[in-house]
Design brief:
Chain lengths: 302, 331
């Protein structure tokens, strides 16, 4: 569709150009992905610099009084508290910033962990084939056939929710796609002659997997992992919304929504911002993933 | 000329156990390569040439399996070696060049990195020395500006250049045996000539033997000291290159040679003689001599029994009941 936008980048320079620079040049042509990338960069900076951006407010402090409001609880937005106060009289803006840390951390770490586990399973499964492949893939199918959300709810109810248990619970269910993807990739890669050539110069299976197969199957994994980030953020939000994820008083976008739903009619602004934050973040990751998929498409190279 | 035997393959059998039945890709192949000698392995597609070479490297993958025979390399049977020991031999003592220079190099690494990898795997050198050696090798195989080319990626090189890089990789550890599996098939003729020249040159310089696998008879005539013609996983004719070309005994070899077009022949207007039919399906081998359905000289015995590989004239082995005794020159 938009393929005419992709021109070979950098061929006019005589020096050697790297693969990743070429990928980035392609990505730059993808407008929505670039906008998403900027939005994500801003969101990440906001999460990182949550403290200075809170203007002296703290997400855990109960505000005693707000000028112009009868009670500090559920006070509407004011210059000192741009998003108002929540039902416990805590500053919603700083909670939004600190909550972003949790959501983004969960998104990234779970994706990374899922991709790493999936890569290992996929590489082993694809390279060795036979009974190993059969066992790993049937296990993957088994995991895929489980109803994820109910199981996550049960799991996180059993192991009480801290940030790391949530990350663990989500990661357990997020490696299967990558495993299948990598296995498929390896199956086709290992028929290529460079793998045979590597065997013919006497390289060991471990080395072939790590230096030949892994880098060559990275592109789809990067795309899948990027797309998975938004899914993981939503899982975290869902669990926290249901009261099974991040526990109060630690803020996360999900449990902020949970807290806000009771006051949906009296203080609707409390609900908007975490909702919008989740929406923007997941959309941006999805668009970025799409852009990466186009930029990394190997068919555009060979 | 009695030379030291480098590789002695005896009655090699490699079968593929597929769902549709057993494919006898290599079915009792025997040949000998002396030190520094070039053996040409010729045949049509699907005659087990490549499987033979992979068997020598012990690189046959499931469902394929080496089910019998011996591969004596420098006096030791490779089939009795452990995978670990084989890995040490691959690359350092037996090296291989592949058909497709386009896919035989890993697209994500530079040419130099991949050649150094071979050196680093087998030799006790540091990266700097490996780089120096690699640049030398690139120079030897005739890649101009080797120091700069070291850092280039495969997609920045032409097919001929890549094949040169493959050869550099193959000879990086001074192997005693180089297996060239259709190494020049994917290249155009001028590049092909250069690559062959290079291989011959290197063969003389470092004294390695070459197992030269091809379907191109002209190349074999050019390169090989002796020739083995294969058909359906068996050797049908085996002799020194000169007698095979001047005086082919097996009807198959005869057919192959007469189907080479000649510019000088007066018969240029006539259709080229071809061997009738096709290589039989591996699942439905004809009884008797496997070549009998395509053979103009086939008789009843050919349809009943598989002939043995017999010496028809000194050092000339032929698997046929009715060897052609073409005294006239064919080519």
């Amino acid at each position: 569709m938009a393929n005419e936008n992709y021109v070979e980048g950098g061929t006019e320079t005589s020096e050697s150009y790297s693969y990743w620079r070429k990928v980035f040049q392609r990505l730059k042509k993808h407008k929505i992905a670039m906008v998403s990338l900027w939005i994500l960069a801003v969101l990440m900076l906001m999460a990182i610099f949550a403290k200075p951006l809170s203007f002296g407010n703290d997400p855990y402090t109960y505000i005693k009084a707000v000028p112009g409001a009868l009670r500090p609880e559920l006070a509407p937005p004011s210059p000192a508290h741009p998003l108002g106060l929540d039902n416990m009289a805590r500053d919603a803006w700083s909670r939004l910033l600190y909550g972003g840390r949790v959501s983004l951390a969960v998104g990234f770490i779970c994706s990374f962990a899922g991709a790493a586990v999936g890569l290992i399973f996929g590489l082993i499964s694809g390279y060795f084939g036979g009974i190993t492949d059969m066992l790993i893939m049937r296990f993957t199918d088994f995991m895929l056939s489980l109803p994820v959300l109910p199981l996550m709810i049960v799991l996180s109810a059993v192991i009480k929710g801290s940030l790391w248990t949530i990350i663990f619970v989500i990661s357990v269910f997020s490696w299967m796609g990558v495993a299948r993807l990598v296995r498929g990739e390896v199956l086709s890669l290992k028929e290529q002659e460079f793998v045979e050539a590597a065997r013919a110069i006497g390289e060991s299976p471990g080395r072939i997997m790590s230096i030949h197969l892994l880098p060559n199957s990275m592109s789809p994994v990067i795309v899948a992992a990027t797309l998975a980030i938004s899914g993981n953020i939503i899982y975290e939000a869902t669990l926290s919304f249901l009261g099974l994820g991040i526990r109060q008083p630690t803020p996360s976008w999900g449990n902020m929504l949970n807290g806000a739903q009771t006051f949906m009619l009296t203080a609707p602004w409390l609900m908007w911002w975490p909702g919008i934050a989740i929406l923007i973040t997941t959309l941006a990751f999805n668009f970025l993933g799409d852009g990466l998929r186009d930029a990394l498409d190997p068919r555009l190279y060979r | 000329m009695e030379k030291e035997i480098l590789l002695d393959v005896k009655d090699l059998k490699t079968y593929f156990y597929t769902e549709d039945g057993v494919v006898r890709a290599v079915n009792g192949v025997s040949f000998t390569i002396h030190k520094g000698e070039v053996l040409g392995l010729v045949g049509e597609s699907g005659c087990g040439k490549s499987v033979t070479s992979l068997s020598v490297m012990r690189l046959v993958d499931a469902p394929g399996k080496i089910v019998g025979g011996e591969i004596i390399f420098k006096g030791e049977d490779l089939l009795k070696k452990s995978e670990e020991e084989m890995r040490k031999i691959r690359g350092s003592e037996i090296a291989m060049i592949f058909q497709e220079p386009m896919t035989a190099l890993n697209p994500v690494y530079t040419i130099g990195d991949q050649i150094s990898e071979a050196i680093l795997t087998h030799q006790d050198v540091n990266e700097e020395e490996a780089r120096k050696k690699t640049v030398e090798l690139l120079d030897i195989v005739g890649i101009p500006d080797p120091d700069k080319r070291f850092d280039e990626y495969p997609h920045e090189m032409s097919g001929g250049m890549r094949q040169r890089a493959m050869i550099a990789m193959a000879i990086s550890c001074n192997p005693d045996l180089l297996i060239s599996d259709e190494a020049t098939t994917a290249l155009d003729v001028t590049i092909q000539a250069q690559i062959l020249e290079l291989m011959k040159d290197l063969q003389k310089k470092i004294g390695m033997a070459i197992l030269f696998i091809t379907h191109d008879l002209a190349l074999v005539a050019e390169m090989a000291d002796s020739v083995a013609v294969t058909y359906t996983g068996k050797i049908v004719e085996y002799s020194d290159a000169r007698s095979v070309f001047k005086n082919p005994h097996h009807p198959y070899t005869y057919g192959l040679l007469s189907s080479i077009p000649s510019l000088l022949s007066e018969k240029t207007k006539e259709p080229l003689p071809a061997i009738e039919g096709m290589v039989p399906s591996p699942y439905k081998m004809p009884t008797g001599c496997h070549f009998n359905p395509r053979c103009p000289f086939a008789t009843d015995i050919c349809r009943k029994e598989m002939p043995e590989l017999k010496e028809t004239s000194p050092n000339h082995l032929v698997r046929c009941f009715h060897p052609v005794n073409a005294k006239e020159e064919v080519s």
